[in-house]
User: Fold this.
Amino acid sequence: MSLGTLTMSKRELDRVQLMLLIQERRRTQTQVAEQLGMTVRQVERLYRAYKAGGAAALVSKRRGHPSTRRLPDATRSEALGVVRERYGDFGPTLAHEKLTELHGVTVSVETLRQWMMSDGLWLPRAQRRQRPHPPRYRRTCTGELVQIDGCNHEWFEDRGPRCVLLVYVDDATSRLMQLRFVESESTFDYFAATREYIRQHGKPVAFYSDKASTFRVNAKEPRCGPNATQFTRALGELNVDLLCANSPQAKGRVERANLTLQDRLVKELRLAGIDNRDDANRFAPTFIEDFNRRFARAPSNPHDAHRPLRPDEDLDDVFRWKEERTMTQNLAVHYKRHLYIVEASPIALKLRRKTVLVHELADGTVIIRHGAHELKATPFRKGGTVRQQDVVDNKYLASTLERVRKAQIANDVRQLREGKMTKREKALLRASLAERATPEEVDAAEIASPTPPAAPVLEAPPANKYLGSVLERIKQVDWQEQMQRDWRRRSPS
Assistant:
């Protein structure tokens, strides 16, 4: 006699196991009810059904039967008939729009998607054939195309913090041209690595990168133009092109180099006892020389396409963060929530209500220039417990300034804790604090400005299609931020 096959869900299998424990008197019905989140009466009914019909009695009676809420077969036939006749190459979303607007068929996008998949009109992404990536020939000359990428990895294993390695690989020879360990793939880190590359090898014809925000503005309609990033602006000043790959396979040389480096370089750093970025950057030239001796190949054309720097090209001036600003009538320039007061001079007076160029260096220094003229400017710092219009007696000036200094330290500590800054800005602010304040003053500032109560963590909605839950979550976040602002207002200064 064949017993056949019994299909059960995980919840039903768990119930069978618990009914067996009750039968063997290893659990009471009350304990099982607490474990299942049911009442004792419900467990009694389940146990009676289990004793009468075995495990099959716990299987849902609705299994195998159509849902009572499903749409009529006529609606499905009508929708699929229209799609098959007119919109055979349309995706589910576009087909749903046409069905709703032109044919009056009201079904959800997901229902139409499932219907089209079961009828063979739509192939889900997971079942599509992988797009082929045919190989391409190497470039013929060294320096004609240099592939760049950043690899975030545990380069020091458990001996040091995780960091990013910026890798520059020549397409013609597979040579490692530059390695630089940095904290993150920021614009200033790419500035430093590219500056060092050009000083060593010259200007290549083009760099080949991915579509990261450092290299490309990924907005659909960017207001500043499709290539208006600081990195592309700097390369444009040097007459070096930047190409973005459409897929990781397109820049396979640097991707495969990353895999090799994650194996070999990690072990070499371990053997050398290196556990920080500075020592690793000093070790990089030795590793590059050994790596190229083993794996680099000769180019098909011995010509070196690198170009030397012209006398008028200053790398320190090119690789800066540059933004245009308008100088006010009062000789003030606003930049990144800071105010800079320009010293009055004949040139500065002529530039009122005109555009100037703000240069920011990697260490946070801000320089204001117009053409070849550098304008002297001092930052105007807002904050402290003394307002500009307050009158301070001369004999109380020292204590007032000390109070202002401590208030400024507390403000900097608060900014570091709230996390509304980039990693580079935090590092610069920590360095500034170390110069201006002792560790005891920093600790006292942290105690004086306590951390506000943490808002409850909200679970993210399962998918972006649940727009209603996303909007409700935004309302809750706004309410929590208002609660934190009220708490800060009531907290002692």
In short: The longest strand covers residues 146-153.
